[in-house]
Amino acid sequence: MSKAIQAVRGMNDLLPETVERWQLVEATARDVLHAYGYREIRLPLLEKSELFARSIGSQTDIVEKEMYSFEDRNGDNLTLRPEGTAGCVRAGIENGFLHNQIQRLWYAGPMFRHERPQKGRYRQFHQIGVEAFGIDTPDLDAELILMCVRLWKSLGLEGLTLELNSLGTPESRATYRAKLTRFLKARRDQLDEDSLRRLEKNPMRILDSKNPAMQPVIAEAPNLHDHLDEDSRTHFDRLGEYLKESGVAYRINPRLVRGLDYYTRTVFEWTTDRLGAQSAVCAGGRFDGLVEQLGGRPAPAAGFAIGMERLVELLARQSPSPSSGAPEAYLVLLGESAGKHGLRLAECLRNAGLRIECHCGGGGLKAQLKRADRSRARFALMLGDEELQDNTVTVKDMRGKDVQVSVHQDVLIDFLNERTGRRVKT
Ligand code: HAM
Fold first, then answer.
1. Could you read off the pLDDT of 23-40 as tens digits, one per residue?
2. Any residues with Cβ below 6 Å from ligand 1, and which?
3. C-alpha neighbours within 13 Å on the C-beta side of residue 44
4. Atom 14 (ligand 1): residue with closest C-alpha?
5. Quick one: pLDDT at residue 323?
6. Is residue 333 located within the same domain as residue 406?
7. In this structure, what CATH number is given to the domain that contains residue 113?
């Protein structure tokens, strides 16, 4: 036998058991997003590499080290998207739906980053992303956060903390950055290797370091909040008021700087202490300058993206088995006549909206019931010669205590609806 080929490192198969939970999250997210008037947009997985250098920033870890870039057969330099914001802005400019307009959009799908894979960090991962354009006031920032809160509540998700910060305008940030660089250079001997590398190119990311040895220097470093411009400070304060008004708890984290360069003013992350090192489940903020930076006419914007793998993992830890997706009944067919009649009966039940798995391939009662059990169906519906004659089926409750009843086929749909709680008989 030749050697089996394995998946690319950091890229996972999502098996049916896992997919059920993903579908639940996706369906819930879709309902929540639609409730706020957001509309779905579908974007290419491949974009010109230049798009990401010009938006995420050429000096960031993502663009410097993590992109899957290649030359295609025409010699064009392309990149598998590492995130969705840049592509969404590109599409907005190209299709002319940003200028002087308010747009509320969302997207979902895979993203690619060549990071070191570990639990919660993958090379192909999935996001549900949200971007809103044309509104520069902090009520939009609050709306985005409230939407997250509603989603967590709808999913019954616990243990998420909202961290907030403001990065100010590019101008106020430049002043701060210069001051921070001077401070850090004076303490060069206390910086770790990673921070030394970042010192010239991206000093603010040093504040994000998780290295315990770096914490004393970081604690002493000048505070970004003391350098915010007046408008950004007002914007941030008003966002805080909206959140308080809505009863949303948050923690101001002046060290929250984000790893993408396009942010201005508000940035936020939803974090958890239940997933180890990869604690951010959802992150985003304002990017008021990005549309112009990518060649469009200026338009304010803000958004966020949820990391699906992390969200699903958090849900799985909370409640180990989602019940959605399992068939309501498994049809056991004994004998040739039952086989013929069974396919028709299964279609009838499905017409009534029931999920039915129909046995195929023959076999005895015991073997078929084993399959019924594995299907996770609540009921096994048994059809043999006797039942055919009486126009009944024998119904076995697979999750009850061996309860078995004979039900006439004319009332089978009502019976199943009632027992599965799909619809109460009137
Ligand atoms: P990001 O912080 O790079 O932001 O990613 C958002 C979320 O995606 C993270 O909080 C995390 O849950 C998940 N994530 C990121 N990288 C990985 C990975 N390698 N493996 C698993 N999950 C990961 C953005 O991508 C921005 N585009 C968000 C945004 C939208 N800002 C404004 N609009």
1. 999 999 999 999 999 999
2. 83-85, 113, 115, 121-122, 125, 127, 129, 131, 259-260, 280-285, 287, 303-305, 307, 309-310
3. 11
4. 307
5. 58
6. yes
7. 3.30.930.10
